[in-house]
Write a structure and sequence with these properties.
Residues 101-199 form the Cytochrome c domain. One of its GO terms (molecular function) is metal ion binding. Residues 1-21 form the signal peptide. The chain is mostly helical. The chain has two domains: 1-37, no CATH class; 40-204, Cytochrome c-like domain (Cytochrome Bc1 Complex, Chain D, domain 2, Orthogonal Bundle), CATH 1.10.760. The protein has helices spanning 9-15, 26-37, 47-50, 54-61, 68-80, 94-102, 144-148, 152-163, 185-196. Helix 6 crosses helix 9 and helix 8 packs across helix 9 (185-196). The termini are far apart. The structure holds heme C.
């Protein structure tokens, strides 16, 4: 973890309000604070913030820009963790996928443990023309299937992207839906259909 020395520490000490010594390990201090103040409740468990996996650790170490080798290492390792559908079928029902994309609930302290999560895709993506309330952190997915088709490569790429977004963009803002067990295999198939089924309103 990086140590940040503070040049102004002497002046601050002189002013009599220094609570942290110069050369404080702020990463550790922040983690200690979260461990002390945050409490697990229901499905919102503390291990989500205190137990970082290797990808999260590297993303914290390089929060804005990271060396190319670091990004490539994260992506290669995350791609290896993708589990493809056991029966080789990628598409479920787009109607169910739309409900999952609309649903922003799940994994919050007020949710029941074990209740199904939503995907909250609209928080970051445009998907259909009918839904006019959407975020734009992610690219528009309107006409995703119409523009890309349904080749084996596209099915595999789209599955892997939704399963583990970091397999293609290290430190992505997009949740790792399959990898983190946010959505199960059936739900993943349903959101796949929302994007790829020609009958889906996403492709009209
Ligand atoms: C918190 C924001 C966020 C959420 C929620 C989110 N995404 Fe994304 N998504 C992104 C971003 C940002 C990208 C651009 C690439 C990257 O940074 O990973 C992206 C990229 C994608 C891509 C690749 C697009 C392309 O042109 O190759 C697909 C497919 C996708 N998202 C599907 C989904 C689906 C389906 C859901 C819901 C289950 C979802 N996303 C939820 C932020 C999000």
């Amino acid at each position: 973890m990086k140590r940040i020395g503070i040049v102004l520490a002497v002046a601050v000490t002189a002013a009599g309000c220094a609570t942290m010594a110069a050369d404080t390990d702020y990463g550790k201090a922040a983690l200690d604070l979260m461990k002390a103040d945050f409490k697990s409740k229901g499905p919102a468990t503390l291990d989500r913030i205190v137990n970082q996996d290797e990808a999260q650790r590297l993303c914290s170490e390089y929060p804005t820009e990271r060396p190319k080798e670091v990004a490539e290492k994260i992506e290669a390792e995350q791609l290896k963790l993708v589990k493809y559908p056991a029966d080789g079928k990628y598409l479920g029902k787009w109607q169910e996928g739309e409900k999952i994309a609309q649903n922003g609930r799940g994994m919050q302290s007020s949710d029941k443990v074990g209740s199904p999560n939503g995907g909250n895709c609209y928080a970051c993506h445009q998907i259909t023309k009918e839904e006019i309330s959407f975020g734009n952190i992610g690219p528009s997915l309107y006409q995703y299937g119409k523009l890309r088709g349904q080749s084996e490569e596209i099915l595999k790429y789209t599955w892997a992207k939704i399963y583990n977004a970091q397999a293609f963009s290290a430190c992505s803002n997009m949740p790792r839906f399959g990898h983190k067990g946010i959505l199960d295999e059936k739900q993943l198939k349903d959101v796949m259909a929302l994007l790829l089924d020609p009958a889906s309103p996403a492709n009209k």
